[in-house]
Amino acid sequence: MDRTLVALAYMSFTCVALMLIRSDMVEHRLPNRVVLPGTAVIAALLAGASVTGGGLEAIARAVLGASVLCAFYLVLWGAGGGMGGGDVKLAVLVGFFLAWHGWSAFGIGAAAAFVLGGAAALVLVTLRRATRRTRIAFGPFMLLGACIGPLLG
Hints:
The protein is 80% helix and 0% strand. By secondary structure, the protein is mainly α.
């Protein structure tokens, strides 16, 4: 595995995540102009790192993870579960990134987004800064989960 490509992927993920967190918290938007190229660059870097290391298993797992997480978010979006279209597109990046690290990282990171998002919503409601109908940006929790998954998985 090429550590330089992995480092570049991590740096790219950090830059993309910071831009998206700011955008989602301020504007409740995850812009395509950041999500789509960011996903392509990070996926290419991680795929390149896998290919140079001779391991195609990580790429296959990452593609499957991206597909599974995107499908899950698509179902939530379609069912009116409070997810937006940006969250669905971001799920491709998050799923790819998490599953590239392994299934344990994928499960922990994907679940962490909901645990952290739910906890934040509960705190806001308890402090009377939000109601059950208040829109809360979920992208930051998805991205935080993507950071936690590889650390704990």
